[in-house]
Amino acid sequence: MKLSARNRINARVVGVTRGEATANVEMDAGGTRLVASITVEAADELALFEGQEVIAVVKASDVILAVADDPAGG
Amino acid sequence: MKLSARNRINARVVGVTRGEATANVEMDAGGTRLVASITVEAADELALFEGQEVIAVVKASDVILAVADDPAGG
Amino acid sequence: MKLSARNRINARVVGVTRGEATANVEMDAGGTRLVASITVEAADELALFEGQEVIAVVKASDVILAVADDPAGG
Amino acid sequence: MKLSARNRINARVVGVTRGEATANVEMDAGGTRLVASITVEAADELALFEGQEVIAVVKASDVILAVADDPAGG
Amino acid sequence: MKLSARNRINARVVGVTRGEATANVEMDAGGTRLVASITVEAADELALFEGQEVIAVVKASDVILAVADDPAGG
Amino acid sequence: MKLSARNRINARVVGVTRGEATANVEMDAGGTRLVASITVEAADELALFEGQEVIAVVKASDVILAVADDPAGG
């Protein structure tokens, strides 16, 4: 299956915090911490476990850019 | 400034494709390709240039998880 | 009221899973299952009930396209 | 590949409007019109053509519910 | 029509920047500048004009909070 | 830090509803009620309190426009 979403980040599941409706999935992507909020139903269906290899998929229109106020120190 | 957004990925600008309203910013995050679609106005205001250090910021609710159909090969 | 959002899908409420902050609303749209995660406050305000006719509204920029790897079987 | 996204709507491509950065993909899903705004790069990669079968994927947190002001006519 | 979306901000259209696929709508909401990126099709359908009264609608899950690093100056 | 996100609305925290995974933050922006759904982790990290000054940040692509069916009364 090909996806139009431009961002696919390989990561491993570190932990899952479950509420009644939403689950927050904490991941590690080569030292960068990632978090995904998904439905509890999706977390169950994906059978997430610690150490599992997953792909964090993000649409380009959902990425905000931040830059330091003065990166050059000028 | 602190942000509620849980995902902040350090990256470098690789290139910018500008339309009239939208600019797609291609980035490299330690070997992972990222793309952000932002307004042309924002691209101008951030004065993006090739090689610039930026942070790709994504809200946890905008992250989709994908897993291989059978990661264990079973 | 006219909305800029391009996707409006007629559906019926099948069930609601409520947490403290978020409610997941399961719907049926002519045989296609849909799920919306909204605030519990919104679920209360809309007075959702099973069988209720609703419209699932989605912005065009929130739609990801997926295609089979080889739809032509070639 | 399994996705956490809860909404997957089968559709056929009706047309594509291309800008420099963004492409709007118009689809038909059993009589319901759908539109996805994706990057031009993604449109090229998916090799979209009229009549192509695609899946419109939407995260549950990106679905807004609308209900008529007085569905019971009371 | 009632919407589940929790944020509805009254605003006036200040200007529209049109590309081929996307239009950026600049608004004024009581002194706060707002910008919406919508499809050109939606901009045409809404027949947007300068000074027009509109409502900027945003889902609660699309709002990021930012706070100053040290608001108390301590 | 500069952000690409085009909408930054000054507001004050009115209240926080916490679930296990998600917190809904109610705000007042000069008389307009705003709500943000963020992770409980983010709510803790921002140390939100009633009356706190915050900025509600929204990407332009997450803003939907609504207009009255007949604003001119014609």
**Mind telling me which CATH architecture of chain A this is?**
Beta Barrel
Could you please say which CATH topology of chain A applies here?
A: OB fold (Dihydrolipoamide Acetyltransferase, E2P)
Uncertain segments of chain A? none
What is the multimeric organization of the chains shown? homohexamer
Cα-based radius of gyration of chain A, to the nearest Å: 15 Å
* Strand order, sheet with most strands of chain A: 4-3-2-5
Pattern of helices and strands of chain A: EEEEHEE
State the total count of DSSP E strands of chain A.
Answer: 6
Largest interface: A-B, 39 and 39 residues
Overall morphology of chain A? globular
Class derived from helix and strand content of chain A: mainly beta
Distance between the termini of chain A: 47 Å
Strand portion of chain A, in percent? Answer: over 45%
**Broad CATH class of chain A:** Mainly Beta
Mean pLDDT of chain A: 94
CATH homologous superfamily designation of chain A: RNA polymerase II/Efflux pump adaptor protein, barrel-sandwich hybrid domain
Number of helices of chain A: 1
List strands and helices in order, with pairings.
6 copies of one chain form a homohexamer.
Chain A: E1 2-3, E2 7-18, E3 22-29, E4 32-39, H1 40-46, E5 53-58, E6 64-67
Antiparallel strand pairs in A: 2-3, 2-5, 3-4
